[in-house]
Amino acid sequence: MATVSRRAEVADVHKLATGMPFVTRVDGPAGNPVYQVGGKSFVFFRTPRPDAFDAETGERYSDVIVFWVPSDSDKQALVQDPGLPFFTTAHFDGHPSVLVRGSRIGELSVAELSEVVQDAWLSRASRKRAADWLAAHPPK
């Protein structure tokens, strides 16, 4: 992942997600933002759940953001890299997504976050939309 840019902020998640084409934002059951392409979620802000909590206090995390990933190998690469803030829980076993706490998003650069959001979008967009976007944005 590229690392040349400022540290990411939660606001960057919103900006990057809405910057992808054909994106709609819907509100989840608790008013939490859910970003979709073609009716499929690719980034969403999760409500506190019992599977993501502080091990010392038992308090549920209230700032978890979920990003879809292209494959299980991509998921494993992100959650197993000790230099990255991504994690998963048993609830997401077998699900092509990673989680990150909003309070730790600053451990990523905007460039790194951008790549994660783009990969999330590409993993959920239709083949045509993904191919068109990739043709217009060739890898550097």
Give an overview in words.
By secondary structure, the chain is α+β, with helices and mostly antiparallel strands. It contains four helices and five strands, in the order H-E-E-E-E-H-E-H-H. A five-stranded antiparallel beta sheet has the order 1-2-3-4-5. Helix 1 packs across helix 3. The termini are close together.
Secondary structure tally, helices: 4
Largest β sheet strand count, sense and barrel closure: 5 strands, antiparallel
Pick out the low-confidence regions. Answer: none
Biggest sheet: strands side by side, in what order? 1-2-3-4-5
Shape: globular
The overall pLDDT, averaged over residues, is: 93
Question: Helix and strand string, N-terminal first?
Answer: HEEEEHEHH
Structural class: alpha+beta
Distance between the termini: 12 Å
In short:
The chain is 31% helix and 19% strand. The chain contains four helices and five strands; from the N terminus they run αββββαβαα.
Write the layout of secondary structure elements.
Blueprint: H1 10-19, E1 23-27, E2 33-37, E3 40-45, E4 64-68, H2 72-80, E5 97-101, H3 110-124, H4 127-136
Antiparallel strand pairs: 1-2, 2-3, 3-4, 4-5
Helix pairs in contact: 1-3
Q: What are its keywords?
A:
4 helices; globular; 140 residues
